[in-house]
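idk why but the lab printer keeps eating my pages so im just putting this in chat instead. protein + KG4:
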Amino acid sequence: MADVYILGIESSCDETAAAVVRSGEQVISNAVFSQIATHQPYGGVVPELAAREHLRAIVPVVRKALADAAQSYQSIDALAVTQGPGLAGALLVGVSYAKALAFALDKPLIAVNHLEGHIHAVLLEERQKGHHEVEFPLMTLVVSGGHTHLYLVQQNGPNPLWTYRNIGHTRDDAAGEAFDKVAKLLALGYPGGPIIDKLAKHGRSDAVRFGRAQIKHRQRGDRSPAPERPHFDFSFSGLKTAVLRYVETQGLEPAIEQRRVALSQIAKPRAEDVLALCDGTTLDLVASFQRAVIEDLVQKTLAAAREYEVNTLFVSGGVAANSELRQSFEQQAAQEGVPVYFPSRPLSTDNAAMIAAAAYPKFLIGEFAAPDFSAEAAWPL
Ligand code: KG4
Ligand code: ZN
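predcted complex ->
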């Protein structure tokens, strides 16, 4: 079959991204405009500002993706866009722009679920390395700022589309959200994940003992029959509260306030700047928090992998960029004898290459978006 060039567009959260991917297996260009600087003063994504920034960035980002790929609007075969889940106003910018562009160019448009994009980022990365055969069924953990979801993924016969069964998700905060909130609480900067990843290397991860989240899998009054197999749900808000308690009992507030003031005077604080402003107790707390999140993610994912007897593990989403998480998964999955795959760091966090890659199987079977489709902020996979 001839090469198929798909232009992907992603605007679900705080990254405006466009990319060209060839036949679902080769990233030709991958342009990302990050809004971190816009949201940094607020310690989290501000939805209205995100939509405004997407509006500003979308045209230049798409032009850059095409130019970097030495492609033109006319030469691409199809467009793909994130339909959801995500921030409604943010999604709407990408969806409206992609619809208008596809209409003007008379090219097919494919609507992609953001979570399916994160999963396909792993496959894309493996295909780029020449590894084409994935052994199904596979267990996928999508772990980001908005999601902590476990999916059992199957491929049925010659149909190129995969099927997804959600077998666990977070009951409250997503894991990345917990990283961001704890970083905000401790005045470490935004986004929290990358900075905690770096600081944790300087602390003792066994210094603070956090209890494991207790999750009741059947709600009181729930009369539905018990599921055949257990669910593997997560909960991280208790951990965040435990960090707050520790701050109070150890009297860390004055040091946090000092750090907040000191960091506000540095234009673009680097990890070394933050490290220099952290004492041993704070570094131990950060390392112990990270260990608690990772232990929970790894243990539940591996328990689910055993329960569903999968042959492969995929870990994707922004938090999959975490170095301790990767190490821990690699070690423990090796003990279980299950291969585990991650995307490279640029394909772990939000990008449009994963959207173009996830669109390719849909292109093959002609699953195109209806002209009147719209953004879906809470679109489940
Ligand atoms: O996938 P992503 O870019 O956007 C969402 O779909 O949410 O993920 C962003 C999240 C943020 O919460 C960020 O703090 C977290 O991923 N993150 C990390 C790391 N890099 C990004 N968390 C832990 N360790 C990292 N190295
Ligand atoms: Zn994401």
